[in-house]
Amino acid sequence: MLDRQLKALFAALLGLMALFYVIQNIINLEQATGAIAYVLSLADANSYPKNLLPPVGPPLSTIIAWFVFLCEAATGVLLLLGGWRLWGARGADAVGFESAKATAKLGAGLAVFTWFGLFATFGAAGYQMWQTATGASSMNGAFQFCTFALLLLVYLNQKD
Could you tell me which of 114, 98, 97, 95 has the C-alpha nearest to residue 14? Predict the structure, then answer.
């Protein structure tokens, strides 16, 4: 029973974290969209001045920023809903609890897509965001969030 409660709690906490991030981005909209636009513009990319991917400017960088925010929000909602469903199924039989994991797994998977796929693959590798302080800070935060999401996925996939 404790394992089931912890799975529900950790899914909800990761969901809250994602929502905190997206709300902070919305509250600081100019800075958040500016940071993404800065990375995508390849400005100050002096260590590796030639890049495989082309620089992106407004309005495309703004569209990309809003796509990131949408992924963060969806991650938060799915994980909170998944945590709620897990909590509700904590007393169910094994089959019932396993089926209740689906939404939390989807939320954790979307977190991996967002912070590994978008930030690490495209931002860090594709746009070499490690070259600037703004980009490196975002890259480090993305790594931490992705790690939490992957750990949660592993934990959720463990049978009772």
Answer: 114
Q: Could you tell me if 118 and 99 are in contact, meaning their C-beta atoms sit under 8 angstroms apart?
A: no
Q: How confident is the model at residue 160 (pLDDT cuts 50, 70, 90)?
A: confident
Q: How far apart are CA 125 and CA 5, in angstroms?
A: 37
CA distance 113 to 150: 10
Answer yes or no: are the C-beta atoms of 98 and 16 closer than 8 Å.
no
Contacts of residue 124, defined as CB under 8 A and 6 or more positions apart, other chains included, come to 130, 135, 139, 142
Going by C-alpha positions, the residue among 152, 81, 77 that lies closest to residue 112 is: 152
Q: Whole-angstrom Cα distance, residue 157 to residue 4? A: 12
